[in-house]
Each structure stands twice: as structure tokens, then as C-alpha cells.
Task: inverse folding
């Protein structure tokens, strides 16, 4: 009789697959290299366009964005012109793979999976936000007392709750890399302890250190980035590589204590490259095209700001970035957590045919101000909406980067043509995929080299904005996995699999089925 299967998933959040393979081949990541030699690997892709905000919800549920309705950590509140950060209700719409397994009697250990809340009933343990990149709730555990044990055992994660900082010196970047390295080591110790002291059939641990390192330290690695300084990298070393090596060491320590019969999957769901994309320009682009009007300051829809509030907003915008960030975080905490009312979009609905929705720097969302759907919609559904989208798409595709002459936008996609599902109506109608060829700099580094973002077309003329966002790395759609265990073949799979296929495959490996998913089982991951 075949012994019960056990599956451990170690996710390197937003690690760049090209670098993992390259550095493994060079001997810099020996544990990952051994997995590649002895296991089964494959290339993956996240969901189109929305691969920044929708990657984790899509992976854990096996559903596309229309199937779970999540595209960004701050989304439009239906029936308003306000956005609200995710709360428990949004995250609980669709069951993640570990709830399916738990209901089937499998014991689970769910450790620091990003953008998830506590599952209400679980046959096992769960840790939420001991150390993740996008923290929504703070540290929570099931059972509740597990949090105290974790803090006694390894303490709080060394990296602050928000890894973004308005400005860092070279010494502060080196110190930040050190925090990530210590965080990876502490996470390995924590993982070993929890797996050794709890019964489990399925376990997943996510290493967020790769995510923070990619955003903040990319310019230490990439010579093509405007902030790359060869002298600084020669002095301090490639700080991104140093974090990846610490993660490789952490993987080795976790695997060293495991029963050889346990099947291991190490994966990254989406990758990382230079910071690119012109989402910051989209509001002005739409305004120049005459389809978006800013708030007039008149009362209406409960979303306008007038009088003294308008004066405060203008004063806030005049502050330098290092002062705006903490004030913005305080305002968000008050509006989102205490008052539950979200943040206004700042548009005049009576004069706006559409409005932008944040989806990240590399892709921007546009939602039609549709009559019958939005509270003050002015675009009629049907043929009128179709004509509007066709015209707007053509005007957007006319945009170029005036510095290079390259197209600014590669594609304008319609979410209804990409996905189908019960939450389709929550998504942006149009998705703008920016041309990611040019790396943008930031005013936080290298005297602002490459920090001016520009767009031009015959219709709008030339517009520009200055990027003062501190990140130098941003996500890409590509991912990968490598698996090793009884019954699994060796080698590299041909073609590219969807990240939506992974959770159904994990469930299938453990003899369970995820119902109503669009992801398909990868036969090679289920094995004999």
C-alpha cells in the first residue's frame, strides 16, 4: 500500500526566474541548483495584465480575476467613486486550495501566504503576516496562541511593515539587505520548527524577502537601470544577489530536516525587472483626451472635497515626498480601517466618461462611467460604450515615448475578452499594458536620473511627470517551479503553464479535487 503523500511548497515571492536559473548554473545558488538537477522544472505565467495585484488570489484559488474579483489591494467600492483596501469579506469570496484540502481531511500548515486572511475553519495551523510584502491585517494565527510562540521563538520579522522608504543612503540600503538576509534565516528556523511540531499533509511557506529585495535593490544588479552605480556595486556587492543567496541557504536548511519521502515544490509566481510603465501619466492623458474631468469641488456623490479640505489637499500635494508618505499612510489608516469609507477618486462624474483604476505601474485599469452601473454614469451601455472603447483604444495606442519614439502602450485589452466569471463586473473594463522596454529612474536616487516620464501624441501634445516613487524594480508576468519527490520525473517541461494550474495540481497530488476552477491539473506534477 502506498504511504500517504506529503507536499511542501516553498514560494520565493516575486523572485526573478531568469536570475534563479542563471545564478544556479553559476553555482551561486547551490541548493536551488541541486533541485533543478534532481527534479522537474517548468516555466509559468501569471494572469495577463493584472499580474501584480491578482497573482496570489489567482494562484491559491485556481480562478482568474473574474472568478475572484481581486485585481489590486485597493479597489473600487461598488456603487461609489471611492476605493477601499481589501478586507476579510473580499478575500473570503472563493476558497483557497488549503481550505479544499482541509475539508477533505488533509492536515495543512499555511505560513505567510500574501494577501490572505485567516481561514475560518482549518484542519491545521495558519500564520498570517508574520513577514509579508503587502501587509493588510498584521500578525494573526490559528490557533491564536501560536503568534506568541512565534514571537518568543524568532521574534518579529527584521524588515519594517512597509519596505518602501522615501530615500535611502548606500549604508541604509546595505542595512536593509541585512534585514532581509536575517529575515530569511529566521523564516527558515520558524518553518523547521512549525513543520516538526505539527502534523501536516500539505504545507506552504512564502519567503517575502525576494519581493522586497526586487523592488528596492534592483539598481544594485542591473547595469541598464538609470540609478546603477558600478563603483557602489563593486564596493557593496550585488545586494540583490546577497538576498537570493540567503534565500537559497534558507531553502537548504528547511529541506535538510525533511523526510526524503516528502515532495518539495519551490516556485516563484511572477518575476522582477527594472521599474517601468507610465501609469502615473494616465489621469492627465485621459484628461487631455477629454474623457476625464477632475472634481470641481462641488458637493456631490459624497466624494468631492471643498473649502478647507481642498486647501489641505493642495497643501499636502506641495509637500516633498518624504513628508507625504507618512501623512498618506496615516490618512489611509483613518479612512480605510477606522471609518471604513475608502478614498475618493477625485473626479467629476457628471463630466467623466471613464476613470483610471490602479493596477500597478506596469498596467493601468480604466473603468467606464457606465449608466446603470456607476452611481452617476453617463456612458450608455451597448453600442455607445462599444464606440467609446474603440475610439479611446485607438487614441491610447497613438501615444509614444517622445525620447525614444517607441510606442508608449503595447496593448489595450478588454477584461471581458480575457476572463469570464461571477465577479467580472468588479474589474476595470480596459487594461492598458505599457511598453516596459525603458527603465524609469526615481528622484530618490542618482540625482533623479531617468525619472521624467513623458507621453506624446497629436491629440494630447506632450505631457510629463516626475517619478518620485523609490522602487527600482517592478514585477513581470513570468514565473517558474521546480518539484522533486516520489513518482515525479526529472527534467524541464516544454512550454509555459499557467499559475492557475498549480493549486489544482497540488490538490490532485494529494488525492483531492478543486471544484469550479479554470486551472487545469499538470499531469507531470501529480506523478504516478
Result:
Amino acid at each position: 500500500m502506498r504511504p500517504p503523500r506529503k507536499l511542501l511548497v516553498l514560494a520565493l515571492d516575486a523572485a526573478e526566474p531568469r536570475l534563479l536559473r542563471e545564478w544556479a548554473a553559476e553555482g551561486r545558488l547551490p541548493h536551488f541548483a541541486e533541485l533543478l538537477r534532481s527534479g522537474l522544472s517548468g516555466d509559468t505565467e501569471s494572469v495577463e495584465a493584472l499580474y501584480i495585484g491578482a497573482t496570489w488570489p489567482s494562484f491559491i484559488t485556481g480562478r482568474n480575476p473574474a472568478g475572484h474579483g481581486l485585481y489590486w489591494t485597493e479597489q473600487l467600492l461598488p456603487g461609489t467613486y471611492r476605493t477601499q483596501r481589501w478586507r476579510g469579506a473580499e478575500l473570503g469570496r472563493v476558497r483557497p486550495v488549503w481550505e479544499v484540502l482541509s475539508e477533505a481531511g488533509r492536515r495543512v500548515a499555511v505560513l505567510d501566504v500574501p494577501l490572505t486572511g485567516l481561514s475560518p475553519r482549518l484542519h491545521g495551523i495558519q500564520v498570517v503576516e508574520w513577514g509579508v510584502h503587502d501587509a493588510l491585517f498584521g500578525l494573526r494565527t490559528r490557533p491564536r496562541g501560536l503568534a506568541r510562540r512565534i514571537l518568543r521563538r524568532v521574534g518579529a520579522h527584521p524588515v519594517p511593515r512597509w519596505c518602501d522608504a522615501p530615500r535611502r543612503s548606500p549604508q541604509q540600503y546595505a542595512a536593509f539587505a541585512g534585514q532581509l538576509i536575517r529575515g530569511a534565516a529566521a523564516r527558515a528556523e520558524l518553518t523547521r520548527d512549525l513543520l516538526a511540531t505539527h502534523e501536516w499533509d500539505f504545507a506552504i511557506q512564502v519567503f517575502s524577502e525576494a519581493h522586497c529585495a526586487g523592488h528596492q535593490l534592483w539598481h544594485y544588479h542591473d547595469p541598464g537601470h538609470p540609478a546603477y552605480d558600478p563603483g557602489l556595486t563593486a564596493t557593496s556587492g550585488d545586494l540583490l544577489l546577497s538576498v537570493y543567496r540567503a534565500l537559497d541557504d534558507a531553502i537548504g536548511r528547511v529541506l535538510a530536516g525533511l523526510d526524503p519521502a516528502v515532495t518539495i515544490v519551490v516556485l516563484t509566481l511572477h518575476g522582477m525587472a527594472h521599474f517601468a510603465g507610465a501609469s502615473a501619466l494616465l489621469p492627465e492623458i485621459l484628461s487631455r483626451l477629454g474623457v476625464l474631468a477632475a472634481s470641481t469641488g462641488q458637493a456631490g456623490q459624497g466624494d468631492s472635497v471643498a473649502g478647507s479640505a481642498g486647501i489641505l489637499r493642495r497643501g499636502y500635494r506641495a509637500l516633498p515626498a518624504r513628508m507625504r508618505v507618512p501623512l498618506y499612510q496615516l490618512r489611509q489608516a483613518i479612512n480605510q480601517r477606522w471609518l471604513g469609507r475608502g478614498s475618493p477618486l477625485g473626479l467629476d462624474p457628471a463630466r467623466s466618461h471613464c476613470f483610471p483604476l490602479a493596477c500597478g505601474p506596469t498596467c493601468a485599469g480604466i473603468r467606464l462611467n457606465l449608466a446603470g452601473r456607476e452611481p452617476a454614469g453617463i456612458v450608455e451601455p451597448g453600442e455607445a460604450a462599444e464606440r467609446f472603447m474603440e475610439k479611446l483604444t485607438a487614441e491610447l495606442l497613438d501615444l509614444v515615448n517622445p525620447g525614444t519614439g517607441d510606442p508608449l502602450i503595447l496593448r489595450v485589452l478588454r477584461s471581458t475578452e480575457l476572463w469570464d466569471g461571477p465577479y467580472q463586473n468588479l474589474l476595470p473594463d480596459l487594461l492598458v499594458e505599457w511598453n516596459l522596454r525603458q527603465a524609469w529612474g526615481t528622484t530618490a536616487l542618482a540625482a533623479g536620473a531617468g525619472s521624467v516620464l513623458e507621453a506624446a501624441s497629436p491629440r494630447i501634445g506632450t505631457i510629463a511627470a516626475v517619478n518620485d516613487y523609490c522602487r527600482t524594480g517592478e514585477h513581470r508576468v513570468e514565473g517558474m517551479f521546480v518539484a522533486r519527490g516520489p513518482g515525479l520525473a526529472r527534467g524541464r517541461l516544454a512550454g509555459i503553464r499557467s499559475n492557475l494550474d498549480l493549486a489544482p495540481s497540488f490538490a490532485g497530488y494529494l488525492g483531492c479535487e478543486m471544484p469550479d476552477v479554470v486551472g487545469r491539473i499538470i499531469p507531470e506534477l501529480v506523478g504516478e
Notes: The longest helix spans residues 170-197. The chain has a mean pLDDT of 92.
